[in-house]
Every structure is written in structure tokens, then in C-alpha cells.
Specification:
single chain; about 750 residues; mainly alpha; 27 helices; about 80% helix; disordered N terminus
């Protein structure tokens, strides 16, 4: 502890010569000054608030956060980059714009993402701009806000003849149902690149919609045979092959359709769809055995596929067609057993669809999105989800993301607000805490050195072991508290010593007064002259006056000692006000040094004091630098706080409007899809029942035919017997009929 060091340093100091004493403290102060220089150097080198990171370093941090899935923190880093005006136009700045929009999109901030993408579209260039526009289309599909996107696309004339722009405009028009404009943009592409290949595929889709199958096949074949290389080439070619197979199916060319389906391998993401559609093609071609194999492979490999339920029913139909009646009946019975309970529940709900619609809307209002069930929960998976349901579910997903992000943002707002409100919290941030503690220790070391010197020089050894009850009101630093405690002890003991001396003098004077009074009152004064009596009386009066002064001094000392002991609230308030900072200690020590100088401190000690003052001055300069960095960090936090508040306000506003929109549409869509599922469940049960009835009738017909055949055979046998009998009678001469 520093207290022990004070005590150990003071006792031998009294025995040392002044020169040795000077050397000891001079070396100490030199070491402290070197420590301060090193601290300042380290702070300037390591403190992030003092050191500006490069654009590449900040961008790398953002990409790392984004790769880790922390899109919100990544967004802050990218926004910090965009806030640096001197970085605008540098390599990496556009990347930060694009990645900011992407991280906002992944985090559910669709409208904010859209704004940054539109800005990138208007000011950017190169691949980032192209990727940004593609992402902008995804955002527009999420928000349904095409008007602003279309205006932004139309506003970039310098980009208007670029192949990627023509494809993007064509695809955007296609997604909005404007097929005429989509065809115009896509047909104008003459380049041999990725965009032209993708445009050919979309043109084939447009021809298919228009019913021009010949032209559509031509477009799809050109996609399949392209030599252009790009990242998604394999996927585009698979889609083109699948489209050709479907076109052949529509034209009744079962063999050609089957051949096209078989070209897509089992590693493709579209393979389950291929198996289902190829089986249907084989069914239309009346190749029931191959269709059965395709359906069975689908169920075996992809039991959770959206076509699995329909496939099970179709397999039962195929088995019935092939005469596998027992297996078909078992499959039909399984379907009936599975869906009869669902049918019963849906029959109950069918009585009041209006309440179902209102219930969905109320769930959205109360943010119970998991209970919405656009498709009825008891029949989920029966029907393939349509595009409008996809849109509502994506909006519900966006509401989920908005709700979650708003909560996270509000937590972050509270954290930043707390940090800004509490100065100590800022000082305790990792980038400040180490240097703040080191600077505090250096200041304490300087003050402690000066304290040792002044106490040793004056020869007042404080009682360093006594504890002061008011320490809890003093500074947090244990070293600083120890210094203040030792100062208080020294002051109290000095006053207690003076108190003791004054009491001795009071007792002595009181005794003298008593002696003189008793002597005057005795008979010994009879022989004294008047002048002698007057002199003794004057001495008594002087002693009484001195006694009164000493009693007043004693009372004053008692009051000071009481204050030092903390026995009055005034002293505690004074201690809290004046003795709770290193600055107050410095002022107190400088006053002690000045007092020692007046007592005749030589030039050596003056040099020590000046060295100490110089170190404290340097430390003050470091403190100013530290405070400036602290203010800079506070400014950064305030800017981040404001950005987060903007996020929250924007999302809350969107959240309210989106809930109203989703609530109105989701209720109607839920009812419509409920009815669709209801019809499909009824069809499943009905078809299964009819399948079993059909099999029963087939078996009945087969047995009836067998019985009829037996009866016919017996009838014929009887007729033959009757003829034989008649012939026998005729031959026997019996002419009577039986």
C-alpha cells in the first residue's frame, strides 16, 4: 500500500542529508516523467478515438459483421463510412453503399434499403450499381412500392442503353404485369452476355403466356445452347429445359416432354418438380407402370414435397387402373382416415367465414402473427401456396423483422443514452479506461512524492495507521483516499499537539494566578508598597487575559478537531466539495510547498517542486487531450443514437401502416385460401371414397359376370341334357314327354 511507503520513506528521510534527500526525489520524479511520456505515446498510438481508420479497414469490419449475420452492427459501420465526406468517390465507398442496403434488407428495413439503393442508382457506377438495381427489384417485390423504383429507373439516362439496365427494366415490367413494355425492353438487347441470355428466357415466358409455343421453344433452345459464361448459367439452362418440357406437354407431345424432363439430373433443385410433372406426362400417355415408378420415387426421396399428398392419391388411382385392388383400397382408406377429422373441423369453421376473416385481422393487430394461418393450420400443406399468399406472408415476415428490430434498436438507444448521461460510463469504455487509470496513478504518484517531501522536511510524522470514518465520502481511488486520510491525520494530530500544549499553559497560568491570589490575600502583603501591590495586581490581570485567550484558542482547536473527525455535517460537505479530486490535493500540496519555501527551503528543494509542477502541467495537457477524445467519442455516440432513433421512427411508422394494409388483405386472402383448401380436402376424401366405391363396383361387376357365365354354362348343360334325354326316349319308343 502507498500508506506504508509514505511511512517507510519519511522516517529515514529525517536522518538523511538534504543532498541525498534531493537525489532520491529527483530520481523518483524523473521516473514518473518518463512514465507520463510513455503513457501519452501509447494513448496516441492505440486509442481508436484518436486514430482514424482507413476506409478499407472500416469496410473489412462491416463485411466481417455481415458475414457473421450481425446485420445491424454492420449497418452502423457502413453508415459511418458514408458519413465521411472525404471518402466519397474513393474505391470501396460504393461497396459500402451497396452492402449497407443489403444489410438493411436482410434486417427487414426495406424502405431504408430502397432509399440507399436509389441513391446508389443515381450516383454510382460499375458492378455495384448493377447489383444494387437487382437488389432494388427484390426490395420492391417485398414492399410493393414500384412507383418510386420506376421513377428512379427512368431517371438515369446515362444508364439507359446498358444491357443490364434494359434487362432490369424488362424484368421489373414483367413482375408488374406490363408484358408489352417488358417485351420491348428485352427484345432490344443485342449483346452477347449474361443479360441477353436471361432476356431470351423471359421472352420465352412471354411467348408462352401469349400462346405462341413455337417462338417460345425457339427462345428456350437459344438459352440452352448459349456459350456465354456467367454465375447462374446452370440454373437458367435447367429452367429453359423445364419450360420446353412443359410446352411439349401442353401440345400433347408426351414422348418429347418426357425426354426433356429426363435431361434434368437428380442434383437439381427442380428435380422433385420434374418427377411430379413427368409422372403426369406418363399418365397422359397411359404408361401407368412408368408413372407409378416416378410417383413412388418422388414419395421415397421427397416425402415432404408439396406434391406428396396429391401423389399419394394418384398412386391409388394408378394401382386401381392396374388391377391392384387391395393396395389401392388400403391407400384410399389411409387418406380417408387421415382427412376425415380435418374435414369435420373445417365443416365447423365453414359455418362462419366472416368470423375467421375478422379473427385473422385481430391477430395481426395484436401482433400474434403465428396464429394468422393464411392457410388453415389443420390442412396446411394440402394446397400449394399461391403468389398472393406469398406476398402476404412476406409482409408478415417483414412485420416480424420490424418488430424485432425495433425492440433491439430501443435497447441500443437505452444503452447509448445511459452512456451519454453518465460521464463515468464513457470514461470506463475500454478505449479510455486503461489510460484514465494510468493517468490517475501518475498524478497520485506526483502528489504522493511531494507529500512525502513536505512532511519529511517539516518533521511532522502523521499517525498513518488511524482510519477516518468519513472516507466513504471521499474519492473512489484507494490511493487518493489514503493520501487524504494521511493529510487529515496529520492535521488532526498537529491540532491535538497544540491543544495539549495550550492545556499545559492554561494549567500553568491558572496555577500562577491561584498562587498570586492566595499570596495577595495573605498577610504577607502588609509589608508591600503600593507600587508592588499594583504590579502584582497587573500581573494577575495579564495572566487572566492570557488565560482567556488560550481558552478561546482551545475552543477553536476543539472545533477544528471535531470537524476533522467528521462530527459535523458541515465538515463532511466541505470534504466532499474540496477533498474529492486530485486538483484539490494539488492545491493543498502547493500551499504546503509555498509555506516550506517561506521557511527557507533551498534551491535544491525548489527544483524538486518545479519538476513536480512541470509533470503536473504535462499531465494537465494529457488530460485535455483525453477530454477532447472523450468528447469526440460522445459525439460519435450521439450521432449513432440519432441514426438509431431515425431507424426506430421510420420502422414504427412503416410498422403501423403495414399492419393496417396486411390486416385488411390477409383476412380476405385467408378466407379465399381456406375455401380453396376446404374444396381440396373435400375432393381428397370424396375421390378416396369414390375410389373405394369404384373398386367395389368393379369387383361386383366381375363377380356378377362370373356368376352369369356360370348360369349360362349350367343352362347350356341342362339344355344338352334335355336333348339327350329326349333322344333317349325317342329311341326307346316312349313318345310321352316328361
Amino acid at each position: 500500500m502507498k500508506i506504508g511507503r509514505i511511512f517507510c520513506a519519511m522516517v529515514p528521510a529525517l536522518l538523511l542529508s538534504s543532498s541525498a534527500y534531493s537525489v532520491t526525489y529527483d530520481e523518483t520524479l524523473i521516473g514518473i516523467e518518463a512514465q507520463l511520456t510513455q503513457l501519452s505515446s501509447e494513448y496516441a498510438r492505440h486509442n481508436p478515438s484518436m486514430k482514424s481508420k482507413s476506409l478499407d479497414e472500416r469496410l473489412a469490419e462491416g463485411l466481417t459483421m455481415q458475414a457473421a449475420g450481425d446485420y445491424q452492427r454492420a449497418s452502423y459501420i457502413y453508415m459511418d463510412i458514408l458519413a465521411q465526406e472525404d471518402w466519397r468517390g474513393k474505391a470501396g465507398y460504393q461497396t459500402a453503399q451497396l452492402e449497407l442496403a443489403r444489410s438493411l434488407y436482410e434486417n427487414g428495413y426495406y424502405l431504408l434499403s430502397q432509399q440507399y439503393l436509389i441513391d446508389l442508382l443515381r450516383t454510382g457506377r460499375g458492378n455495384e450499381r448493377t447489383e444494387g438495381v437487382m437488389l432494388l427489384l427484390q426490395v420492391a417485390q417485398k414492399t410493393g412500392n414500384w412507383s418510386e423504383v420506376n421513377m428512379a429507373l427512368a431517371d438515369v439516362s446515362d444508364f439507359s442503353q446498358h444491357p443490364s439496365y434494359l434487362y432490369i427494366m424488362g424484368r421489373a415490367s414483367f413482375l408488374q404485369g406490363d408484358y408489352e413494355l417488358a417485351r420491348k425492353c428485352l427484345a432490344s438487347l443485342r449483346s452477347s452476355d449474361e443479360w441477353q441470355v436471361k432476356a431470351q428466357y423471359l421472352l420465352g415466358v412471354l411467348d408462352t403466356i401469349a400462346g405462341d409455343y413455337t417462338s417460345a421453344l425457339s427462345h428456350f433452345k437459344s438459352v440452352e445452347t448459349t456459350t456465354v459464361e456467367f454465375r447462374s448459367k446452370a440454373q437458367v439452362i435447367e429452367l429453359a429445359i423445364l419450360a420446353q418440357a412443359r410446352l411439349y406437354y401442353e401440345q400433347g407431345q408426351w414422348k418429347e416432354a418426357t425426354q426433356e424432363y429426363q435431361r434434368i439430373g437428380d442434383k437439381s433443385t427442380y428435380f422433385p418438380t420434374v418427377l411430379y410433372e413427368m409422372a403426369w406426362t406418363l399418365l397422359r400417355a397411359e404408361d401407368y407402370v412408368m408413372a407409378q415408378q416416378s410417383f413412388e420415387l418422388l414419395l421415397l426421396s421427397y416425402p415432404e414435397d408439396s406434391h406428396a399428398l396429391e401423389t399419394r392419391r394418384l398412386l391409388a388411382d394408378i394401382k386401381r387402373q392396374l388391377g391392384q385392388y387391395d393396395e389401392a383400397v388400403a391407400t384410399y382408406q389411409t387418406l380417408v382416415n387421415e382427412f376425415d377429422p380435418i374435414m369435420a373441423k373445417m365443416d365447423e369453421e365453414a359455418k362462419n367465414l366472416d368470423s375467421h376473416r375478422e379473427r385473422v385481422k385481430s391477430y395481426i393487430e395484436s401482433e400474434q402473427y403465428n396464429n394468422v394461418n393464411i392457410i388453415p393450420a389443420q390442412a396446411r400443406g394440402v394446397v400449394a401456396v399461391g403468389s398472393d399468399v406469398n406476398q402476404v406472408e412476406s409482409m408478415l415476415s417483414a412485420l416480424h423483422a420490424t418488430d424485432s428490430n425495433t425492440n433491439d434498436s430501443e435497447i441500443l438507444i437505452a444503452e447509448i443514452s445511459a452512456a451519454l448521461q453518465d460521464d463515468d460510463t464513457l470514461r470506463n469504455l475500454p478505449e479510455f479506461q486503461r489510460y484514465s487509470n494510468s493517468a490517475r496513478d501518475i498524478r497520485i504518484s506526483v502528489l504522493l512524492t511531494g507529500y512525502e517531501f513536505t512532511e519529511a522536511y517539516s518533521g511532522n510524522l502523521p499517525n498513518l495507521s488511524e482510519e477516518i470514518k468519513t472516507l466513504e465520502h471521499l474519492p473512489r481511488s484507494s490511493v487518493e483516499r489514503e493520501i487524504i486520510a494521511s493529510l487529515q491525520n496529520a492535521a488532526r494530530e498537529s491540532r491535538q499537539s497544540n491543544q495539549h500544549h495550550i492545556r499545559l499553559k492554561i494549567d500553568n497560568i491558572t496555577h500562577k494566578i491561584q498562587v498570586l491570589r492566595s499570596w495577595i490575600s495573605s498577610g504577607k502583603v502588609a509589608n508591600m508598597t503600593e507600587s508592588e501591590k499594583s504590579e502584582i495586581t497587573s500581573r494577575i490581570e495579564a495572566l487572566e487575559a492570557k488565560l482567556k485567550t488560550m481558552n478561546d484558542d482551545l475552543a477553536k482547536l476543539n472545533g477544528e478537531i471535531a470537524q476533522i473527525r467528521g462530527n459535523s455535517s458541515i465538515s463532511r460537505e466541505q470534504h466532499s466539495t474540496y477533498l474529492t479530486s486530485a486538483q484539490a490535493l494539488e492545491e493543498a500540496l502547493q500551499a504546503r510547498w509555498a509555506s516550506d519555501m517561506q521557511k527557507g527551503v533551498n534551491n535544491t528543494y525548489s527544483n524538486l517542486i518545479e519538476t513536480s509542477r512541470r509533470i503536473l502541467t504535462q499531465l494537465d495537457a494529457f488530460d485535455r487531450t483525453f477530454e477532447a477524445a472523450l468528447q469526440k467519442r460522445a459525439t460519435e455516440l450521439r450521432e449513432k443514437l440519432q441514426r438509431e432513433i431515425t431507424f426506430v421512427e421510420a420502422e414504427k411508422s412503416r410498422f403501423v401502416s403495414m399492419k393496417a394494409e396486411v390486416g385488411e388483405t390477409a383476412g380476405d386472402i385467408s378466407v379465399r385460401y381456406w375455401e380453396d383448401v376446404y374444396a381440396q380436402v373435400r375432393e381428397i376424401v370424396l375421390n378416396a371414397d369414390l375410389g373405394m366405391v369404384d373398386i367395389a363396383w368393379l369387383l361386383k361387376d366381375a363377380r356378377s359376370k362370373a356368376l352369369a357365365a356360370t348360369l349360362d354354362e349350367r343352362k347350356k348343360e341342362r339344355e344338352v341334357l334335355e336333348q339327350d334325354f329326349k333322344q333317349f326316349l325317342k329311341e326307346s319308343g316312349d313318345t310321352q314327354s316328361p
